[in-house]
Amino acid sequence: MDADSDVALDILITNVVCVFRTRCHLNLRKIALEGTNVIYKRDVGKVLMKLRKPRITATIWSSGKVICTGATSEEEAKCGARRLARSLQKLGFQVIFTDFKVVNVLAVCNMPFEIRLPEFTKNNRPHASYEPELHPAVCYRIKSLRATLQIFSTGSITVTGPNVKAVASAVEQIYPFVFESRK
Sign of the CA dihedral 94, 95, 98, 99? Predict the structure, then answer.
């Protein structure tokens, strides 16, 4: 087993966060009174709306900005955002679905081996930081991809990045370094 051999690692996407604009002012009180699956947070000035399929929670601001969380793919996030915009249209708002953007993707990947974290941190010092008294994982940042990886001694890696492609390439980039420090 060497670092160059092709190893199939399955990357499980657990959360996709996206943002879109409605290009109209939204009356939060009307959404709270007439909408379904809604929680009105008046003190913060936002409405939380939940969809069942796809399973998404949206934070709706009166300015027309909507943040959707909970999707498991970029396609599901877009589908859920469009369904949300449609439900706002049905409440009587002049919603135009614009400026859709995936802003964050969270994924989990399991390595087929355990990792020696102190050795890994020592070998990758400028990018990796390990504070075992504060957090049980190494924090590894890849600036070019804008991705952050949390590497645990069990071999579990949590990846946060701007899109699915960046998350996948971050795992590809980290594999040889992690392979060197395997138990």
Answer: positive
